[in-house]
Write a structure and sequence with these properties.
Strand order of the largest sheet: 3-2-1-4-5-6-7
Protein name: Glycosyltransferase subfamily 4-like N-terminal domain-containing protein
CATH topology of the largest domain: Rossmann fold
Largest sheet: 7 strands, parallel
Number of helices: 17
Distance between the termini: 22 Å
Strand content: 15-25%
CATH superfamily of the largest domain: Glycogen Phosphorylase B
Number of strands: 13
Shape: globular
GO molecular function, one term: glycosyltransferase activity
Pfam family, one: Glyco_transf_4
InterPro entries: Glyco_trans_4-like_N
Order of helices and strands: EHEHEHHHEHEHHEHEEHEHEHEHEHEHHH
Structural class: alpha/beta
Keywords: Transferase
Length: 418
């Protein structure tokens, strides 16, 4: 197996590992950089100190970087709403148009002119547009892959279903139609489209014409997330983890604080909800502070102590796609999980054996109450879930799978066909 020259296009350098996407990207690239020459081309991290730490981490991992001095615009403030309004005139979804910068496209074009790239890898679907802008007609003759952390259209469809404001629902429908067009182009034109679950791969084939799909699941560092049996759990403490700057997680956190926790505390007054995540918006901080039994911990350096102390992880997602790394981390640490159906989708885990899964808010409340009152039975599910995670979801196994996709695409694009 020869060394490949892999060029990865991404939003930023995924470090520190404070979100599911960052965790996945870094863990896979770190392992594959021991076999191939990997270069990441991306925008600058918004936090300057974070940028320096990220460049050090990538240098230590043996991964080359080309970072353009432009950060992706923030999703707050008057400028954000002005950009949303301006996007009405664009054929591209907002998430694509704000990430497809001329600066990054020029860097990709220059890199292509100076290097013999075996595979171009778009680490998030919107970055297929950067590659299209940079290479133009040449894109038809080069091997390239696109990593769909989520099928974005599915997320936007769920936004439509949960939006309670008519004007907001109208705008979201516009974004949904744009994403459907864009994903149809990206998935059907890539040499190989990579999904994180079998469900997403099926959706990409049936709805978006992706005839060359592969699945590389989300994973977990099973050596880092290990059971800490010397720490006593609080059966009545539910833990919510996730990037709190991601709208589906914000919606889930709001549901937890407004709907689930008050109803649970009406039956179990000492029940608590601990929220752990990066970059929470101010409104969520205020809501958590005002909600009895809730506490919020922002940007923590290590989530393992929270996993060890809680009674169980709660995943009250209503909106989402792909699969949840936080569920894999919890089960790897032998922390029980109570989730909605949306939260648990995309993972090869069996409800009532490896975790508990609810189909409605009412059912989630009832399962939460059962979890608090039957901690021993709940812990049994976590032990079974850990065995399943060890067998299927370690990063070592998944790096092998991604390596096989890259090798097939580089050797002969036809070999990537499903």
């Amino acid at each position: 197996m020869r060394e490949l020259n892999i060029a990865v296009l991404d939003e930023e350098l995924p470090f520190p590992l404070t979100s599911g996407k960052r965790i996945r990207t870094f863990n896979l690239l770190q392992r594959l950089a021991t076999r191939h020459k990997v270069t990441v081309l991306c925008h600058r991290n918004p936090d300057r100190n974070e940028s320096l730490d990220a460049e050090d981490a990538f240098r230590a991992a043996g991964i080359a970087t080309v970072v353009v001095d432009r950060a992706v615009p923030s999703k707050s403030g008057a400028g954000f709403y002005a950009r949303l309004a301006g996007n009405l005139l664009s054929p591209l979804p907002y998430s694509v148009s704000t990430h497809a910068s001329p600066e990054l496209s020029e860097a990709v074009r220059a890199f292509a002119n100076e290097n013999a790239v075996d595979v171009w890898h778009c680490e998030w679907t919107p970055y297929a547009q950067v590659l299209r802008d940079a290479l133009g007609p040449r894109l038809d003759s080069v091997p390239w892959t696109v990593m769909a952390h989520n099928v974005e259209s599915l997320i936007w469809q769920r936004y439509v279903e949960t939006a309670d404001n008519p004007a907001k629902r109208w705008y979201i429908r516009k974004q949904l139609k744009k994403f459907e067009r864009f994903e149809r182009w990206a998935y059907s034109n890539a040499t190989a489209s990579i999904a994180v679950s079998r469900e997403d791969a099926t959706l990409m084939r049936t709805e978006f014409g992706a005839t060359r799909t592969r699945v590389v699941d989300n994973g977990v560092d099973v050596n880092y997330f290990r059971p800490q049996r010397d720490i006593e759990r609080d059966p009545a403490q539910m833990l919510f983890m996730g990037s709190l700057d991601w709208r589906p997680n914000q919606d889930a956190a709001e549901q937890l604080l407004n709907e689930v926790l008050p109803r649970v505390r009406a039956r179990v007054p000492h029940a608590t909800a601990v929220l752990v995540g990066r970059r929470p918006p101010e409104w969520l901080r205020v809501l958590a502070a005002a909600t009895p039994g809730a506490e919020l911990h922002a940007d923590v350096p290590d989530v393992r102590p929270f996993l060890a102390r809680c009674g169980f992880l709660t995943v009250p997602l209503r909106i989402g796609g792909g699969s949840r790394l936080k569920i894999l981390e919890a089960l790897s640490a032998e922390t029980p999980v109570v989730s909605t159906r949306v939260g648990a989708e995309g993972l090869e885990l069996t409800p009532n054996r490896d975790l508990f899964v609810a189909n409605s808010t009412d059912e989630l409340v009832n399962l939460t109450l059962d979890a608090i009152q039957r901690p021993d039975e709940l812990q049994d599910t976590a032990e079974r879930g850990r065995r399943q995670v060890l067998a299927r979801y370690s990063w070592e196994l998944l790096a092998e799978r991604l390596d096989s996709v890259w090798t097939a695409v580089a050797r002969n694009p036809a070999l990537a066909e499903a």
